Every structure is written in structure tokens, then in C-alpha cells.
Amino acid sequence: MPADKTTASGRSPLALLRIPDLRKVPRSDWMQLVRFLAVGVSGYAVNLLVFWIATNAGAHYIPAAIVAFAVAWVNNFLLNRHWTFRRADEAMVGQGLKYLFVCLVALAANLVILHLLVDAGLAEFWSQAIAIILVTPLSYLLSRRWSFR
What we know:
By secondary structure, the chain is mainly alpha-helical. Helix content is 71%, strand content 0%. The protein has helices spanning 27-56, 61-84, 92-119, 124-147.
């Protein structure tokens, strides 16, 4: 089999992670990125608030991060579907499952980073805050190129 397998859409799976040539990106794509980041800020606040409440209620930081993820996922999916990518015309369940998969990939990366930062001695809250920021580019590329395509 050839080394560069393609998906059913004819694109290499690695093409989803390719960084675009910033000189050729149209203004509409930049505006979409701004909307994605605005949604991300709201999800970031929701995530950190739920994480803070859960850990202050005595939850371990890993389950607290998972619960915070779930609450923020609902917020982000609805806002990204209707505002960022404006793809409410697509079937919600299929789109939601693709977005959930993307977010689970981001969550896995987040949990690894969170655990490493906590083990390194950083406070749990700040570790979570940093981990979310670090996985945002991965989440955007996969959301734009696959979930809301």
C-alpha cells in the first residue's frame, strides 16, 4: 500500500493538521478564527469555573477536569455550530459526534499535560488553565477541517 493513504474525501489524514500558509488565508478565515477563540474563551471560563467548583467540593483533579470538559463541550458545540462555523444546516447528531471525537482527542492531550504539570509541582488550577491553552490549536484545526466541514 502507498505510504500516503487518503480518506474517503481524497485527503490525507495528516492534511487535517497541516498549518496553512498565513499569507494566503482569506479575511473570512481570520474572522472565523476570531469567533472560534471567542467561543473558546467562553468555554475556557466555563471549564475553569466547573473545575474550580468540583475540586473545591473535594473531587480529584482528573475527574474534575472530565466533568468540566463535558459542561464546556455543550457550550462550545452549540456556539461553534451556530456562530463560528455557521453549519447548523448539517445533521446535529453526526456533527456532534465528530466534534465530540475532536474534543476527546483534545481532552486526552489536555489530561496528559495537566498530569505532567501537576506532577511537576504546579497548582492544579493553573495546570488546567495552561493545558487548555496548549491544546487549542489542535482543537481548532480538527474542528475546522473535519467536524464543521
